[in-house]
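Issue 218. Parser rejects a valid record. Input:
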Amino acid sequence: QLGMLDFAGSSVVHSVGGWAALVGTMVLGPRIGKYNKDGSANVIVGHSLTMANLGLWVLWFGWFGFNPGSTLSGMQSGLIAKVAVTTNASAATGAIVAVILSRIVTRKWDIGLMTNGALGGLVAITASCAYVSIPSAILIGAIGSALALFAVPFLDKVHVDDPVGALPVHLLNGIWGTLAVGLFHETAGFFYGGGLRQLGIQALGMLVVGTWVLLTATALFQGIKHTVGLRVSQKEELAGLDLGEHGASSYPEFETKTAEHA
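Output the parser choked on:
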């Protein structure tokens, strides 16, 4: 009622998932072997960069239904076109910025970081895609990409084990995308002469959403943990949940290596 704006869900979709993921990750605890006794973190790589990258393109394509579809009417062709372009501009910028930053920081063209950079740009633009200009969308995507990248080492330092980068991508960029409306809205945004009112409303809305999800997610995950159980046994974790849940392994080479290691 105050006028919070979230066109396609940076807050109500992505930050909700991010806040819940934060609680779930902390209640569940880190994977076996993730952290050493001295506090340093080990990299546990995914099984296939190819499949992960394919997932990015599926998501990116799906976002053209997600964001433009939030107009809720096929008759608003001008708005649909604008949303599609701002969405793509932010995502593309996120991917480019991630590749450049990874080259600067790691001296490698990191495909994994590029994937999360593009997703960060997509999440960040989701709240404001109908309200901002294309240059603003580019800037929003660039900042979102940087957030997605530089939050990863911070999470390792505080021992929050996030295997797929859900917190940098969905939580941080859900928050950033929601606040970006108050900064870049073409009439009400701070950088467009709208003052701080819209930014304050966006921040208040984000605070309410975060508080609600933290409370409900804590009750949910703690309830599961203390009833049916949230975590599998150490033996089942090391063997892989495909075997424990389905009686078969999707990746026999992983099963073989695990047995040899044991």
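Fixed in the parser; the record now loads. The mean pLDDT is 93.
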